[in-house]
Amino acid sequence: MAQSPMNPLSAAPSFLLVLSLSGCALGPDYKAPELPSVERYGATALPAQTVSTPAPGGQAQRFLSAREVPDQWWMLFGSEKLNALVNEALSASPSVASANAALRVAQANLKASGADLYPSVDVSTSGNRQKIDTGSFGNPGGGSTIYNLFNAQVGVSYNIDLFGGTRRGIEAQIAQADFQRYQAEAAYQTLIANVVNAAIQEALLRALLKGQQAIISDQEKTLKVSSTQFTLGAIGRSELLSAKAQLASERAKLPPLRLKLTQVQNQLAVYLGKPPSAQVASNFDLAELKLPRDLPVSLPSTLVRQRPDVLAAEAALRTASANVGIAASNRLPRLALSASYGTQASKTSNLFSGDIWSVGGNLSAPLFNFGALTALFKGSQAAYEQSEADYKLTVLNAFRNVADSLRQIETDAELLQAQHEASSAASEALKLTRLQYQLGGASYLQLLSAQQQSITARTGYTQALAARYQNTVALFQALGGGWSTRKSATPVAAR
Question: Top-level CATH class of 33-119+165-338+375-478?
């Protein structure tokens, strides 16, 4: 039985598969660096809870070790206004849109790089009308000839990944896609923390403005008393002028506070993806916020698997590791195969009456490049060492951030307790001194001193209360809590 001629392309897939499987990947196989063996963040163990203060926002906060931070931790503050702001920011912020776009770019590049492991197939057609002089081919009397030439063919090309350069390139693209995913996660978490902190800062400034307006009202009352006493001859003109100067001084504190409030509101508008002119005042009040009582504290071993900056640093390290393999393979020979099959004719009616084909290969190798490839290889090794050091530093800084936040929360509770005691005592002292001043038993200087002490203590208490909220936010952020993109599909490595 006669056998039909074998199509040279029919054996190509098997041949290419054998070659691709026979290749080896140069460069180091990535291994996660060893992490510091630590069981706690600070030099001393955490207390069970902070001190408490008998005032709103003064509740003790409990530290719960080895607990996960809730994704939507901002809801623990118990404010519907705050929840609405965070949701609006997550859906409208340009920073989030930018991070998501960068992630899609990296994922698209990864998908494109995976095609490098497989042959590429192209189809082409052409038509030409040509004139040649047959005399140039050794036929002096032949004259010129005009003819048509039509061509249709399918071409296949394949770069054999002999030393794993292509696979290392895909490995680098996978790591880059992971890096951008963690960068997007960090953008979400940073945005959430910024929105919550801006809301707390707005509430603080409103409280300070309200307190300052109360101080001014009190000073106005004091000035009326001083004017009456001056008229009766009980005090001199110098004391009356001091009272007027003090009132003017307190009124001068209002414009800077209003400016800061406006700036915070404008910044909040940007977080929400709005121009400042479109932002509606949220009218936050510190009394509307509830201090989270239970603070989950992840273990250090868990922290490195959930903080996006640590995960991004590790992804950068994986990229650097893959780049070493790419630089190594660039110093070695490259093999490319190509094949085509088609038909050619001088008339379109005869285009598919015959066939043409070709099979070829190309082997190239760097011969002399003045040491450039060797230098690039050594540079990739140095870049890997740099990324490894950067990763370790990122881990250490992550531990430091958490340790600082935990200690700050302890300190905030102690400070609030002290400020509450100082504010209560100063308020009582001011009441007694004001009564004595009205009865002529205390001088204006004594009253002024009592007022300043009360103002300072009240302002300190308000700021300490806001600090408890803001440093609780800082702890949640330091622990890597909040929006997570790790629930989305992870790119699968091409094999």
Answer: mainly alpha
